[in-house]
Design brief:
Number of helices: 26
Strand order of the largest sheet: 4-5-6-7
Strand content: 5-15%
Structural class: alpha+beta
Shape: globular
Distance between the termini: 63 Å
Largest sheet: 4 strands, antiparallel
Radius of gyration: 28 Å
């Protein structure tokens, strides 16, 4: 790095950002990120009272200012003008938000826009100018741009813009850079060292040794950086035990990518997902039938049958073939009995019960995912708990991740047990999903359901701008008889439910038949379910008006007592008939 007395000279002349990154890379080829020694200063935020920018107006302003420059014949002159126009914006546009704005600009001449992007990336002297070039390369980049992008990636403030650009050109390089940006992740360092060495055997060994509970985005980036699908393709060339370890770790990574705790499942952003699932299915026979392996294969079957991974471009018959191979392994004699040793704790017992329930369901599923309408209940492996979803598939595509993508589908209690999906002549608006944060933050997905002669119509969609480039929600029409049959089938099938959840559903059914049990105490039913952290505890939410007239809620907890769900529900209804819930609800 430069000596202190030299730094003023370095920062006083208009050195390009790329030149600064190159100096850092040469000085610390194996070292940590640049701080401020050789990098240009990051633009500071303006005063707190400076007005914020409106997205639409800013996008239109950038289109007016930069649009003509994208078709300019002289890229060098155009780049100089980009610098001047970006610097003149008041209030300025933050360089990290330029990607969303720039990628929305229409590009009429790709060659000229690409030339401009390269001049900005390689000679730009400000972060906004460089980020503008990086944003253009998301759509226009080519392999020759990769070395320049990797060099710029040594500057911490440019990591995310560079990763976005690399994702479109060299996915593994983007993944390596993203993983290096994970501070405080020592578990990743051996894998990164193996990736740097180019030793594929070492990459495989380090991959297998990683913990299986990493964050969803990290799991995706690890799979991309290590070229997981390629490793799996050679799994039968390994000793069976080593091949089994690799297959199991691949299953864990794919499982982590399907969680919805990050709003949109990472599996949608993993282009190699179809190939990885295919190779997982081909190698599944190498796995011994342990509890963990049962859970991994069952989870894979669930996702392939009703999950967001269906939205990838699979091609004819590939997904069905992977499903067939996985179910064939699960149907082998040695897999028909789930080992129960080491199941003394409540968590282990719950997981064993989930495996037994889910195994029976996935091997005898009566729902045809390719039908015009299919409603399948999804209960995730308790090792990584999530809300229970009533997944709606239309013509073989999961509707909620396809048209909403900000959270899971609503629960069966909300969609089925309430009768909301039942179609009548009177139109009814139904909430199909809510954002993982809340509806007030990121919205919810609504549709209006009505019966029209011998058809049921879903129309009048209401939701934020959906992901994946879709903006128009289609009107859906179903044969009324087939629609009613599918809703009835899904509602009557409680094979997914564990005892505490079944008790909750029975209590609700009892209250529908005897509404006086609530009205006598001036309370209303809010919601029912089970405790997220203790699924063996039934929860009943009761709404009431407080003394001052403000709304209140009572939460009634019914613990597991070993009795059948029917008896537990009957006891709860009897208690409601004789005792004011305010005396035992909190």
């Amino acid at each position: 790095m430069s000596a202190p007395e030299e730094r003023g000279a370095l920062t006083s002349r208009p050195s390009s950002v790329y030149a600064c990154a190159l100096r850092v890379q040469r000085a610390e080829p194996e070292g940590p990120w640049s701080r401020a020694d050789a990098a240009p200063p990051v633009p500071r935020s303006g005063p707190a009272n400076r007005p914020s920018r409106d997205f639409t107006r800013t996008r239109d302003e950038l289109a007016r200012l930069l649009g003509p420059l994208l078709v300019a014949p002289d890229a060098v002159e155009a780049a100089a003008e980009v610098h001047r126009r970006l610097a003149a914006l008041d209030p300025p546009v933050r360089h990290r938000t330029l990607r969303i704005l720039i990628t929305a600009l229409p590009v009429e001449n790709q060659e000229r826009a690409r030339a401009l992007a390269r001049v900005l990336v390689r000679t730009g002297v400000s972060y906004p100018a460089v980020c503008t070039g990086l944003a253009l390369l998301i759509e226009l980049g080519e392999p020759e741009d990769v070395p320049y992008l990797r060099t710029l990636g040594v500057l911490r403030t440019l990591v995310r813009p560079v990763v976005h650009a690399l994702d479109a050109i060299d996915r593994p390089a983007a993944a390596v850079l993203a993983l290096r940006n994970h501070n405080g992740a020592p578990d990743l360092q051996p894998l990164l060292a193996a990736l740097d060495s180019g030793d594929r055997a070492a990459v495989r060994e380090r991959l297998v040794s990683l913990p299986g509970d990493m964050a969803p985005e990290s799991a995706r980036r690890v799979a991309e950086a290590s070229r997981l699908a390629e490793l799996l393709a050679a799994v039968h060339d390994l000793p069976p035990s080593e091949g089994g370890e690799l297959v199991a770790q691949a299953g864990r990574l794919l499982f982590r990518m399907t969680t919805l705790r990050d709003y949109q499942p990472e599996i949608l952003f993993y282009p190699d997902a179809p190939r990885a699932y295919e190779e997982l299915a081909r190698g599944a026979g190498l796995l011994p039938p342990t509890v963990d392996h049962h859970a991994l294969l069952l989870s894979a079957v669930q996702e392939l049958r009703t999950g967001p991974v269906m939205l990838h471009d699979w091609g004819p018959g590939r997904r069905e073939a992977a499903l067939s191979e996985l179910t064939a392994v699960l149907s082998r004699p040695e897999w028909r009995t789930v080992p129960s040793h080491g199941s003394d704790g409540p968590g282990e017992r719950r997981r064993l019960a989930w495996i037994q329930r889910t195994r029976a369901r996935v091997l005898r599923s009566s729902c045809a995912p390719s039908a015009p309408l299919c409603i399948e209940i999804h209960d995730r492996d308790p090792a990584d708990p999530a809300t229970v979803e009533a997944r709606v598939l239309v013509d073989g595509r999961p509707l909620v991740p396809d048209y909403f993508g900000r959270g899971p589908a609503n629960s069966p209690e909300q969609l089925l047990d309430t009768g909301l999906l039942r179609a009548t002549d009177e139109p009814r608006e139904v909430q199909l999903a809510e954002a993982y944060c809340s509806e007030g933050c990121c919205g919810a997905l609504y549709v209006t359901v009505r019966r029209e002669g011998d058809q049921v119509v879903w129309s009048g969609w209401r939701c934020p701008a959906p992901p994946r480039g879709k903006r128009e929600m289609p009107e859906l029409r179903f044969d009324a008889a087939a629609y009613d049959a599918e809703v009835t089938r899904a509602q009557s099938d409680d094979s997914w439910a564990w005892p505490a959840r079944r008790a909750a559903r029975l209590i609700v059914a009892g209250l529908r038949g005897r509404p006086d049990l609530l009205t006598r105490w001036n309370v209303r039913l809010g919601w029912t379910g089970t405790d997220f952290h203790d699924p063996d505890e039934t929860l009943i939410s009761l709404l009431h008006d407080s003394v001052d007239g403000s709304p209140g809620q009572l939460l009634w907890r019914i613990p597991e007592d070993g009795t059948p769900p029917q008896d537990r529900a009957a006891a709860a209804l009897t208690r409601l008939a004789t005792e004011d819930p305010r005396t035992y609800g909190r």
